Structures are given as structure tokens and as C-alpha cells.
């Protein structure tokens, strides 16, 4: 009986699965996400050489985490940004597919990348979030897309940090035109007063979650709304951070 069970388990372990990104067949490893070796190699996490406040990459990945000049002179309203990788290559293609087609199979991968970004730089006890808040979509856009690209991937992060995930704390107060292709100043104008946060965040540390940070205008307005409602600290985590000088090409 035991032998038969062992044999069945071995057959299941050896069964080929399909890569959730490219669809190729492969033998799965003992990991949470199903990626073939080729996609795994292309989706390498950025582990160093960036500004810890805004994620701006330094020239070399081997450089230590140091503040960029922009964050020293005019820091963003959030206190730290965690991200999995730069919005480029396969990561960029995955996010575009995730956002623009209802490809729900990518939720676990997006969630996995957020968790990895959080594991790389654990929060100190003073910073530890009390609540995780996804960047909201306007109800009309949510209806069009069918899901919020920030909410579902935030669930594994909430489980990992044992912090509640609350999607109703931050709301869009008005419909804004799509941010795609807009330069930074126009994004800012487009988003002015577009968010409102619930006063239940008073005195609490908030972790904001989004899929990608482009110019930072969305995170900026969300963080400001949270502080306006009394949040003590706002930190942010995204799957991808746009490299500098690439804003116009991003989705
Ligand atoms: Zn693949
Ligand atoms: Zn910076």
C-alpha cells in the first residue's frame, strides 16, 4: 500500500506542467510558481544597486542601497519602495499581458514577485505595516477590466506578513483618464484629488500595493490621501519599477 502511494507521488512529481508565462512544457521544481527554466532566468529579481526610497537603479546592481539625489532633495511621500525587478523585458511583457487581458493565471506569479520583494528587505518592528492597501481602480474601470490588478496579488503578501488586506480604505473619488503615455506632470494633474482614504488609517502604518510604478504619480497621490487621513507611515511595494527615461514607452 505504502509502496503504491510512493509510486503515485513520484509519477505526479515527474509529470510535465506548462509554464504559466510562455506555455512551454517543463518538469516543475518545488516552487510556488510554475515557470520553465528559460522564463525563470529572464525574471531575475533586482537585489541591489537602487535607491531604497524610490527604487531608482544605480549603475551597477552590486552597489549598496543608497538614496538618490532626487530623494535627498525632494523625497516622495512614501518612506520606502520595494519592487521585484525593473519594468523591462519579460517582466514588462508579463505586466502588460496581466493588465490588458483577463489572464487570471498570472495572479500567483504577481503575488510571488511582491512576496520576494518584501522578503528581500524585511520591515523593522517600527515600520511593520498594520494594514495592506491596494491601489484602487475607479468602479467603472474595475467593471471594464473585471479585476483590480493590485488586489489579488496583494493577498499572498498579506498572508506572508500576517497583516490584513483592506481594499475599501482607499477610494477613487473621480474617474481619471488612463495614465499610459502621459509624462510625469500630466499624470500628476490627471490624478489631483483622485483618491480619498478612510480615517481608520489614523496612526497606522500602511503598505500600498500596485503592479508597476511608472512616474510614481499614482503612489504619490495615494500616499498623500493616506497621510491626509492620518496614516503614520506609508510604504509601497510593486512588482516592477520603470527604469529612468522610459516613461513614455510604458503601459
Ligand atoms: Zn516559460
Ligand atoms: Zn530615490
From TrEMBL:
InterPro entries: ComF/GntX_DNA_util-trans (IPR051910), PRTase-like (IPR029057), PRTase_dom (IPR000836). Residues 152-242 form the Phosphoribosyltransferase domain. GO terms for molecular function: glycosyltransferase activity. Keywords: Glycosyltransferase, Transferase. The keyword Glycosyltransferase applies. The keyword Zinc does not apply. Belongs to the ComF/GntX family. This is Phosphoribosyltransferase.
